[in-house]
Design brief:
single chain, 152 residues, alpha+beta, Ribosomal Protein L22, Chain A, three-stranded antiparallel β-sheet, 3 strands
Length: 152
């Protein structure tokens, strides 16, 4: 074996046997990529019976907070919008904990938005000249909450 090594060092282009190539290829390992363990839990309610403007007033305030802290603050807000958002947050936090095995302390809002949903329109003949020709609109909202967190 040492004689072959001397030959390789003397020549400019080394010749390598196939058996040596196989041994070298077994030593090289592919790099392992770590997959992040964060997942997203989603909540969607397409028909919340409150106007979007009233919901947005609270949603804009709690976007910056963590879901647990937002839940604690909303418990002291005495509005219908707060009660709706409290139920939605409790639902999405429980979903993240039980279905996705996420740590509730690591949860953060990925997305929280309020859009306009269907309107219920009806005529009121007593107010024919006011309210846009007597048309009364009951506005509804669409609430979307996405919560991101790390697995336990």
């Amino acid at each position: 074996m040492p004689k072959e090594i001397k030959k390789i060092t003397k020549t400019k282009t080394p010749t390598v046997k196939k058996a040596e190539v196989k041994a070298v290829s077994n030593v090289i390992e592919t790099p392992k990529i770590e997959v992040s363990t964060s997942k997203i839990a989603k909540y969607l309610n397409k028909n919340v019976m409150i106007s979007p403007r009233k919901l947005r007033l609270l949603v804009d305030n709690i976007k910056k907070l963590s879901p647990n802290e937002a839940l604690n603050r909303l418990k002291f807000t005495n509005t219908k919008a707060a009660r709706i958002i409290i139920k939605a947050l409790q639902n999405v936090i429980a979903d993240a904990k039980n279905n996705f095995n996420l740590d509730t302390n690591s949860l953060k809002f990925d997305l929280i938005k309020v859009d306009e949903a269907l309107k219920i329109k009806r005529m009121d003949k007593a107010h024919g000249s006011r309210f846009a020709r007597g048309l009364i609109q009951k506005r509804h909202s669409r609430l979307v909450i996405h919560v991101k967190g790390n697995q336990k």
